[in-house]
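re: that chain from earlier
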Amino acid sequence: MAAMTYEAIVEAARDKFCDIDVSDVQGVRAFQINIEGKSVNGIFYIEIKDGKVNVEPYEYYDRNAIITVNPTNFIKLINGKLDPVAAFTSGKLSVDGDVNAALEMIKYIKA
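^ sequence. v structure.
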């Protein structure tokens, strides 16, 4: 696997979310993702709005939750190799804010 960079992580999230059907989501859901690792740190957001998912490399202040995770576990999560609930309960990712909204967003990853 190539060296993991912040840009590669944001791109992987974009690739994963761009084709997901979120037409059933009412209103706006926004999640800030804090990547915290030994060599890679960064913040980006995932926004579900108007039936589309946007992934942008910025902080998002009017958010439902902040999800903090290390780069390796984030990639495992979006590739379906790490169960989001197990990751949450074992402390591999933390949620600050609306935990239910965060888990709802994560279920789209698994779709």
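The chain has four helices and five strands.
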